[in-house]
Amino acid sequence: MKRIGLVLFVLALMVTPAFAQYGGGVDIGRTILHRDGISVADTAITTASLELAGYNRMRADYDVTGADVSINVDLQCSNDTLWVSGDSITITSDSWDEFDLMGCKDYNFYVESVSASDSITIYLTPFNRK
What we know:
- By secondary structure, this protein is an alpha+beta fold.
- It contains 1 helix and 9 strands.
- It is flat.
- It starts with a helix and ends with a strand.
């Protein structure tokens, strides 16, 4: 009986640091289809902007179609009146990026350019990194 208690105690000591390191470290929101099959550049800020209140990070997944893809997007944010743009991001294949949310109310990926016969779909997953 003492051996069983000792084994359980040792297992509890091993599990506790693992949970502290990996358990509860990220609060993930639902994945949102933000832009769907965009094949031409935007001409103005779209109504596709999203409010991501309560989150401090975001993962953007880019799904592209076509060959020799070169698509430029720009993460923008707004607090109701003024849109602020970040750096242009060139997408050449299916990939993803992670961003700090800058405390804005709304966020939008502005599509600056799309190479001929190509398109992009962007999924956003907001989360909190603790």
